[in-house]
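Table S7 (text form). Paired inputs.
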Amino acid sequence: MRETGITLYRDTMCRSIKVLREGATPAPSEEVEAAALQFVRKISGFRQPASHNQEVFDQAVADIARISEDLLNGLEIRGAKKAS
């Protein structure tokens, strides 16, 4: 059986990005933003982009942080109450 990219990704996560979901407790925005930054750095191959790439780099971090917060806030954890 051939592994898909998604299956491979599930088995090997970037070591510097930690799991942000702790039951029904929402992750702090700072941690979500830090994980988004690490993800963009990993994908782009740049720790700090050149000035001509800064805007697109920052936009990617903001977009990924927003989408990550949407995901974390939308997950339903069985047996756990959502924080109000």
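Next pair, protein 2 of 2.
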Amino acid sequence: MDKKELNKDFILDLIVEIEQRLSQINHLKNINLEDFLKDDIRKDALKYRLLSLIEGLLSLCNHIISRTDVSPPSTYADCFRKLSKLGISSDTLVEKIVKMILFRNILVHQYWVIDDEKIYEITQIDHSFVNEFLKDIEQLLVK
């Protein structure tokens, strides 16, 4: 995997940023659906935090893949699947991340049609898989 050396400081900064976004999402999600749907500021905040979290994951993946000898990814989802093929993270974990990445396109390109109940559902799921993925990346740094 030594095409170019990984920028460990960059990766660690991204990990901290992603962890902060997860914490912010966890803080903002503690509300019932009815109150959530009435709170435009909270809805916007959660959308932004989700997008920031996803963008952080994408930056992380792109940085790592750009330092390998594998071909560049054709899609955002492909970037994470290449991490799995390189043995950096498991297929199961990567597919959970890919679902988040696919949601990014809705946030970015179709923001006017986003179902706020869907945002609520997404924020209510257990995001511990993101922490597991980050641990896989941290293990890469100690190799």
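The chain has one domain: 8-142.
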